[in-house]
Amino acid sequence: MATDAFEEVDCTCSYGMKLNWDINDPKMPQEPKQFDHFREWPDGYVRFIYRGDEKNAQRHLSGWAMRNTNNHNCLILKKSCLGVVVCAGSCYLPDGSKLQLRPAICDKARQKQQKKACPNCNSALELIPCRGHSGYPVTNFWRLDGKAIYFQAKGVHDHPRPESKSETEARRSAIKRQISSHQIQKKRNMESQIEQYQDASGHFTNTLSSSENLEGFNIFTDTSFPILAQPYSSFQKSDSYKALYNSACFQEDIIPPFQKCPNPRIYVPRPTCGYEITVPNYINSSPFPNLYKDSSKKHSDTDWTYLNGQCSVNSLSTHDRNLDVSSKHHGRKATLGKTVYGQRNDLGQFQASTTHPYYNSEYSCRYLGNASPAAPALQTVITTTTKVSYQAYKSPVVKYSNNVCDVKNLQSCSHMLDCTPRTVYPEVKLQDDCQESKSILPYIDESLPTKGERVEAWDVYRCGLAPENNYTDQVDQLFTCENEDF
DNA sequence: TATTGCGGGCTTC
DNA sequence: GAAGCCCGCAATA
C-alpha cells in the first residue's frame, strides 16, 4: 500500500521539521547535522534548516512574492506574502492558462503594476492578496544562527503561484535583449537605407535620425509589462495578440519574441519546478500550461481533467495540489461562462463548492477555507504569532492516483511527496525547473552559478527540444540535462 | 527603477 | 506585549 511507501520516504523529508524548534526560540538547534535543500515554493506550516552558504537562503529567496515586514526583531527577518496579480477579467490565455503575475514588491511599483491592463484582454489587473495565515498573509521567517539559516513559514497560500522571481527577471532581461537586438537591427537597416538613398540622390535630405525612428520601440522598454507566456504560433495569429501589438503601433515591426523563443522559460509553458505527479483530477498549479498539454482539447471538460491531470509537488504541501484542483474548477467555471469571482467574507475565507471539496467560488485557488485555520495542512494553534504548536489535522482522505493516502498528517505527506525519489512513484515525472530538480542532487551549489545565471543556458537547451517530442522524451532529456549540468 | 533590509511608529487584539 | 501594517530611508542591482 502506498502508506508504507509514504512511511519509508518520510524520513527523507525536511530535516528542519524533524527537530523541535521555533524561529523565536532563544536558541536554535545547535550544530545541525543535516540541512535541507532549498525550497523555492515553501507552503504550509513548515520549517527548514539550510546551510549557511546556501545562496538562495542567504538572499531569503522565495518563489512567492514576499515583502519585508518589520517584526521589530533584528535577529529574525520576517516577510509576508503579497499574493498574485491576475487578470480582473479572468481571461484565458490562448493556451488555456491564466495570467498570474508576480506582484511588485515595492508599494509604488505594485500600484503602478496594477494600473496596467491585462496584455491578453486589456482588462484591469487585480491583486489577489494572500490570506493564508488566519486571514493574514502567509509569513516567512529567516534567521541566521551559526552556520545554519533557519526558515519557518506560517500559513498556507490561498492563491496561485505567481511567476517566480527568476522567471520575472529572466523575462525582463529577455525583453531587453529583444529590444536591443531589434533596435540594432533596425538601426542597421535604416543606415543601409540612408546610404542607399545618399548614393542614389547624392545628398541627404531626410531630417529624421534613425534613433528618432526607433522611438516607437520605447513602448516595449517597460519590461514590467506582462508578456504572455505564449510560444504557440496560434497565439500569434490570435486577435488578442494582434490587438495587443497593433495597439502598440507595431503593425509593421512586430517583434516575434515568442516565436523565436529566446527564452522558453519565459514564453514556454511555465516550469513548475521539480516533480510532477500525474494524478487524475489534479492539475498543475502552474500559472502556465504544461509542455505536453493538448490545447486542442482544453475545452473539453472531461479531457481537461485528464490533460491537466498533474500534481505539482515541487512545493511542500498538499495545498498546492488543492490549488491545482481549484484552478481547474475555476477553468471549468469560466468555460461555462459563469462568474469567476464570487463572494468573499472579510476574513478571506470562502464558501466551498458542494461539488468539489476544494472548489471555491471566489477565486480559483481560494479553496475551502484552507486559507483559514479551519483546515490547513496542519491544524495550527497559535498561542502567539511566533509560538505555534502543531496538531495533527484530521484530514479527509486524499487521493493520489489510484492509491489512497489516508493522510494522518498532510504536512508530512506533502514532504514525502516533495522528497520522494522517482523510483518510489512510477508516475512521478520530472519537470523542468532547475531549482527543484537540483534539490534531488547532493550539495553542489557552491560550484555552480546561481539560478538566475543558469537560466539562459538552460533555456537554450529547452529551446532545442523538438516540438514533436512527446513529453516523456522531453522529460527524459531534461532529466539527463539536469543531471549533467547541475 | 525596482528590490531588499532596516527601523520608527501606529493600531488592533 | 505580540503582531500586522504603513511609511521612509539607504544600499544595491
What would your notes on this structure say?
The protein is α+β, with helices and mostly antiparallel strands. Helix content is 32%, strand content 13%. It contains 16 helices and 15 strands. The protein has helices at residues 2-10, 15-18, 55-58, 107-115, 165-201, 210-213, 233-236, 239-246, 257-260, 264-267, 301-307, 318-335, 410-419, 434-438, 451-463, 471-485, and strands at 47-51, 66-69, 76-81, 84-87, 100-101, 125-128, 139-145, 148-154, 275-278, 310-312, 379-382, 388-391, 398-400, 403-405, 428-430. Strands 1-8-7-3-2 form a 5-stranded antiparallel beta sheet. It has a 3-stranded antiparallel beta sheet with strand order 5-4-6, covered by helices on one side. A 3-stranded antiparallel beta sheet has the order 10-9-15. It binds a DNA duplex (13 and 13 nucleotides) through residues 59-60, 67-72, 74, 77-78, 80, 104-109, 136-137, 139, 165, 224, 384-387. InterPro entries: GCM (IPR039791), GCM_dom_sf (IPR036115), GCM_large (IPR043020), GCM_small (IPR043021), Tscrpt_reg_GCM (IPR003902). Residues 19-174 form the GCM domain. One of its GO terms (biological process) is intracellular calcium ion homeostasis.
List the keywords.
alpha+beta, 486 residues, 16 helices, 5-stranded antiparallel sheet, DNA-binding, disordered C terminus
Query: How many DSSP H or I helices?
Result: 16
Q: What profile does the largest beta sheet have?
A: 5 strands, antiparallel
Q: What distance lies between the first and last C-alpha atoms, to the nearest angstrom?
A: 34 Å
Poorly predicted sequence stretches spanning 5 or more consecutive residues = 1-12, 202-486
The strand line-up of the biggest sheet is: 1-8-7-3-2
Compute the CA-based radius of gyration.
Answer: 24 Å
Strand content: 5-15%
Helix content: 25-40%
Shape: elongated
Secondary structure class reads: alpha+beta
Number of strands: 15
Q: pLDDT average, as an integer? A: 53
